[in-house]
């Protein structure tokens, strides 16, 4: 009988193979490589970004290049090595010119992300940027308005049948264009580190009820 770990590996291998041959949306035609995601399949912390950029498309790996270097620094600040977390994106193929994902692309691709979340079963998900936050909030029945309002807070949510803590923050690439975001990202990753390591009272946050405001989930 295969153990839980090997079942996870098998499920993720099958998923990666499906992504590699996926033609569900037009992005398959312009990609160099799909970028399914990578990391520890037993990670307590999962990071969900937006979509591959130029370097990710070249390498077939998430968060390489300048944004990846910054992400590694932010993870170190939170007390993690990159290989200790699982990293994925909303879209698995690069939108041309790094444009925003289209709603139909998100709809076509996110069943893959949902399956990744079910396989890894993270306790905490860091939503990197507005596309990731909007999608994961919608799956959790939470209202998303703006990153400036949502970021740096902890949302206890039921997502895909699991209890998780969602922590939105800016996409690391945003700090490359707007250096003032860097301090906010650092503060948010320090929070993420404290939450994953159980050093805050987040786990005792009140359970989510319908129609509550986001402020109800503030620690
Ligand atoms: Fe398939 Fe997602 Fe790539 Fe579109 S972005 S082709 S849905 S893997």
In short:
With 219 residues, the protein is an alpha/beta fold. The chain has nine helices and six strands, in the order ααββααβαβααββαα.
Largest sheet: 6 strands, mixed
State the total count of DSSP E strands.
Answer: 6
Listing every helix as H and every strand as E from the N terminus to the C terminus, the arrangement reads HHEEHHEHEHHEEHH
Helix tally equals 9
> What is the helical fraction, as a range of percent?
40-55%
* Main structural class: alpha/beta
**Each distinct ligand:** iron/sulfur cluster
Query: Termini, distance in Å?
Result: 43 Å
Sequence stretches where pLDDT stays below 50 over 5 or more residues = 203-219
Shape: globular
Average of pLDDT? 91
Percent range for β-strand residues? 5-15%
Strand order of the largest sheet: 1-3-2-4-6-5
Radius of gyration: 16 Å
Name the features.
alpha/beta, binds iron/sulfur cluster, 219 residues, 44% helix, six-stranded mixed sheet
Strand and helix layout:
Blueprint: H1 4-20, H2 27-30, E1 38-39, E2 45-49, H3 54-59, H4 65-78, E3 86-89, H5 103-120, E4 124-128, H6 130-140, H7 147-150, E5 155-159, E6 162-169, H8 172-177, H9 181-196
Iron/sulfur cluster binds at residues 19, 22-25, 27-28, 34, 91-93, 105, 108-109.
Q: How would you portray this structure in words?
A:
- This protein is about 45% helix and about 15% strand.
- It is built from 9 helices and 6 strands, in the order ααββααβαβααββαα.
- It has helices at about 5-20, 25-30, 55-60, 65-80, 105-120, 130-140, 145-150, 170-175, 180-195; strands at about 40, 45-50, 85-90, 125-130, 155-160, 160-170.
- Strands 1-3-2-4-6-5 form a 6-stranded mixed β-sheet, with helices on both faces.
- α1 runs antiparallel to α5 (about 105-120) and α4 (about 65-80) packs across α9.
- Iron/sulfur cluster binds next to α2 and α5.
């Amino acid at each position: 009988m295969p153990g839980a770990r090997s079942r996870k590996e098998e499920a993720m291998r099958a998923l990666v193979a499906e992504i590699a041959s996926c033609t569900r949306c037009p992005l398959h035609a312009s990609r160099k490589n799909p970028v399914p995601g990578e990391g520890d399949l037993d990670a307590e912390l999962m990071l969900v970004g937006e979509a591959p950029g130029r370097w990710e498309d070249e390498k077939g790996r998430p968060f390489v290049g300048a944004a990846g270097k910054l992400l590694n620094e932010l993870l170190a600040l939170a007390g993690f090595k990159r290989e200790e977390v699982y990293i994925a994106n909303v879209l698995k193929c690069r939108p041309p010119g790094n444009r925003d994902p289209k709603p139909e692309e998100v709809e076509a691709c996110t069943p893959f992300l949902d399956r990744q979340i079910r396989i890894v079963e993270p306790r905490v998900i860091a939503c990197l940027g507005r596309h990731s936050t909007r999608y994961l909030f919608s799956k959790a029945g939470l209202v998303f308005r703006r990153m400036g309002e949502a970021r740096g807070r902890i949302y206890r949510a039921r997502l895909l049948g699991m209890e998780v803590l969602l922590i939105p923050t800016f996409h690391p690439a945003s700090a490359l264009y707007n250096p003032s975001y860097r301090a906010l990202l650092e503060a948010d990753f320090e929070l993420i580190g404290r939450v994953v390591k159980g050093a805050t009272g987040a786990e005792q946050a009140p359970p989510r009820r319908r129609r509550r405001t986001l402020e109800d989930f503030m620690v």
